[in-house]
Amino acid sequence: QVHLVESGGGLVQAGGSLRLSCAASGRTFSTYSMGWFRQAPGKEREFVAGISWSGGSTYYADSVKGRFTISRDNALNTVYLEMNSLKPEDTAVYYCAAPEYVSDSTAPNEYDYWGLGTQVTVSS
């Protein structure tokens, strides 16, 4: 089992940057692929970025490709989301998540462990 805590959200102007962190507890963190998702008011939760257990493979939603970078440090039990060139439409609560039974998925319903989220607000 994995317990996840996100941090690093905040208010930023359009064009700015933020770095989100997700700290995980549990000795088996390094065996899980990890994902970042987001949910804006009135919208469904959507996939943002994912990373394989080793960090050797990353994948992104088209809307963030080229602007966001996901990475992980298994020694620190932490996954990161570097967000650059932020846009107002990136405003949402951002969640990190881990799937128990699948790997490298983009589907929220295949993830079993979720953090409480961190708010990102991008002003125009």
Low-confidence stretches: none
Helical residues, percent: under 10%
What gyration radius follows from the Cα positions, in whole Å? 13 Å
Number of strands: 11
Overall geometry = globular
The helix tally amounts to: 0
What is the ordering of alpha helices and beta strands? EEEEEEEEEEE
The average pLDDT is 96
For the largest beta-sheet, the strand count, sense and barrel status come to: 7 strands, mixed
Intertermini distance? 40 Å
Strand content: over 45%
Look at the helices and sheets and give the structural class. Answer: mainly beta
Short description:
By secondary structure, this protein is mainly β. Helix content is 0%, strand content 48%.
How would you portray this structure in words?
- By secondary structure, this protein is mainly beta.
- It is built from no helices and eleven strands.
- The strands form two sheets. Strands 2, 4, 5, 6, 9, 10 and 11 form a seven-stranded mixed β-sheet that branches. A four-stranded antiparallel β-sheet has the order 1-3-8-7, with no helix packed on it.
- Strand 5 and strand 6 form a beta hairpin.
- It is globular, with a radius of gyration of 13 Å.
- The protein starts with a strand and ends with a strand.
Tags for this model:
124 residues; mainly beta; seven-stranded mixed β-sheet; 11 strands; 0% helix; globular
Secondary structure blueprint with pairings:
Blueprint: E1 3-7, E2 10-13, E3 18-25, E4 34-39, E5 46-51, E6 58-60, E7 68-73, E8 78-83, E9 92-98, E10 113-114, E11 118-123
Parallel strand pairs: 2-11
Antiparallel strand pairs: 1-3, 3-8, 4-5, 4-9, 5-6, 7-8, 9-10, 9-11
